[in-house]
Write a structure and sequence with these properties.
The protein contains eleven helices and 14 strands. Helix 6 links the parallel strand 7 and strand 8. 34% of the residues lie in helices and 21% in strands. It folds into three domains: 171 residues, Rossmann fold; 56 residues, no CATH class; 95 residues, 3-Layer(aba) Sandwich (Rossmann fold). A nine-stranded mixed beta sheet has the order 3-4-2-5-1-6-7-8-14, sandwiched between helices. Strands 9-13-12-10-11 form a five-stranded mixed beta sheet, with helices on both faces.
């Protein structure tokens, strides 16, 4: 807490810089490029772990059967540069773990990665037949102007209790919320009530044009990392839990409730496993009493370096986003209506 107080003047400076930058975009001093096709942006103001990827996958499920869909991502921590399209040879290292996860799950969706989103859009328009672009983690990347912007807020980290870097976890001031067309308050607890909802709506102070939805993360049953694995394991068997994601606490707590966690291996978000990491994982999961290595879906796509006998006892927990208060249809219709009204065909 003392360190945060010491850093607060720098947060004021950082917040001022981001506000000036945003004002330059708003005034047209810095140019945002618009596109004729529907462009949906998914992003956050709070750094890391808000649940953008489950929301992105939710949007893909809504739209992919009716439109030719392309995901445009930065491809954070990939080992390649520039704008490129994913193909059958792509790996988590070449396009990033989250784009690779989505490409693996949705084979009919085109995936593009680019640090500069304008270059990514040009690549998509020149080389694909795309009806809709979903931009992942693009709230602050304003050189591409989205037609529809979704802001994800972590229930556990309200904007009004936080401040910009370095004293806080915000990428810009909380006033950036005003750019969103739709706000998703994610990771709400299972007992989230109408009273809680009304409290949040009061604190968020959304504009009249903005809609606010409340969602939670639902954990599925374990799935084998190796597709040929037909084995199973029970909750009473000792497991090793592995997570290389931002804010892994919820995932680890879920495993502790459901399974007997013998050891935890925690790595940084988007971490590429080194040879020393592989040795540590093998030593932990290779023990005779350990029946399974259980990880997140995002981490599982980076398990190709593990030896086969470890992969064969490795599982991941799929997650899905659920809309609360019976507002799923309302949420999905808002997305579909935007795309329908801005498409070349309906």
């Amino acid at each position: 807490m003392k360190i945060r107080k010491l850093l607060y003047p720098f947060s004021l400076l950082y917040g001022s810089i981001t506000s000036i930058r945003n004002k330059c975009f708003d005034m047209g001093i810095l140019k945002s490029k618009s596109y004729a096709l529907p462009v949906i942006s998914v992003g956050n103001i709070t750094v890391g772990g808000t649940g953008k990827t489950p929301l992105t996958e939710y949007l893909i499920r809504i739209l992919k059967d009716d439109y030719k869909l392309t995901l445009l991502s930065r491809g954070y921590k990939r080992k390649t540069k520039g704008a490129l399209l994913a193909n059958n040879s792509s790996t988590a290292e070449s396009i990033g773990d989250e784009p690779f996860q989505i490409k693996s799950k949705f084979s009919d969706v085109t995936v593009a990665v680019a640090e500069k989103r304008v270059e990514g859009m040009e690549l998509i328009q020149k080389n694909t037949q795309t009806d809709v672009v979903v931009m992942d983690d693009a709230y602050q990347h304003r050189y591409v102007k989205p037609g529809f912007s979704l802001l994800v807020i972590d229930f556990n980290r309200p904007l009004w209790k936080d401040c910009p870097f370095p004293a806080g976890d915000l990428r810009e001031t909380k006033h950036g919320q005003q750019r969103a067309d739709l706000i998703v308050v994610n990771k709400c607890p299972e007992d989230f009530s109408e009273q809680d909802k009304n409290f949040w709506l009061k604190k968020l102070k959304a504009t009249g044009q903005q809609q606010v939805f409340f969602t939670t993360i639902s954990y599925g049953l374990p799935k084998a990392v190796s597709y040929g694995n037909q084995k199973s394991f029970s909750g009473g068997m000792p497991i090793v839990a592995l997570a290389g994601i931002a804010r892994p606490e919820s995932f680890i707590n879920h495993l502790k409730i459901k399974y007997k966690v013998d050891q935890q291996l925690i790595f940084p978000d988007h971490h590429h496993f080194t040879s020393n990491d592989i040795d540590e994982i093998v030593d932990a999961a290779g023990r005779e009493n350990i029946k399974a290595l259980v990880t997140t879906e995002k981490d599982a796509v980076r398990f190709e370096k593990l030896p086969d006998y470890i992969r064969e006892k490795s599982w991941f927990i799929p997650i899905e986003l659920k809309v609360l208060f019976n507002e799923q249809e309302k949420f999905e219709n808002r997305i579909r209506n935007y795309v329908r009204n801005h498409s070349n065909y309906s």
